[in-house]
Amino acid sequence: MENNYFVVDGEVLPEIFSKVVEVKQLLYKGHVKDITEGVKVVGISRSAYYKYRDKVFLMTEDVKGQKATISILASHEYGALSEILETIVKFKGNVITINQDIPINKAANITITLDILNIEGDIEELIAEMQLLSKVIKINLIAIE
Q: Which residues form the ACT domain (predicted)?
């Protein structure tokens, strides 16, 4: 996994990034009913929103803990979720929520939200180690708060 994460002042970034975050905030707060309405409100295309929605996040400074949400596509095999959770425990992550979909085509989507305040190492290292698990097909960092 070769993702690089940066904390950058939004003023130096292209405006599209702040508009994508604005759409996400409007959706989260319920000010718009869907993505189509949100992109119209902020003045960007749906394709621009979808291109960046999983790549741009707000850094929230006033939270007591840090949370990370990870999306995992895992093989539907015995012990897959256990291996993922063991890796989280190894890094001293604290699981807040787990949601696993019904397996389709021998693979299941798993979404895990973690408290990463006391994690050993950083979230990139944790994700890289999870990606090495034989039963993990794909893994993405969805959000950090």
A: 69-144
The residues spanned by each domain of the chain are 10-52, 67-144
Q: Is the dihedral of CA 30, 10, 112, 50 positive or negative?
A: positive
Q: What's the predicted TM-score (pTM) here? A: 0.58
Is 44 in contact with 56 (CB distance < 8 Å)?
Answer: no
Q: In what order do the strands lie in the sheet with 136-144?
A: 94-100, 107-115, 67-75, 136-144
The number of residues in the chain equals: 145
Q: Which of 85, 111, 113 lies closest to 100, judged by CA?
A: 111
Class of domain 67-144: alpha beta
The residues of the chain scoring below 50 in pLDDT are 1, 61-64
The pLDDT value recorded for residue 108 is: 95
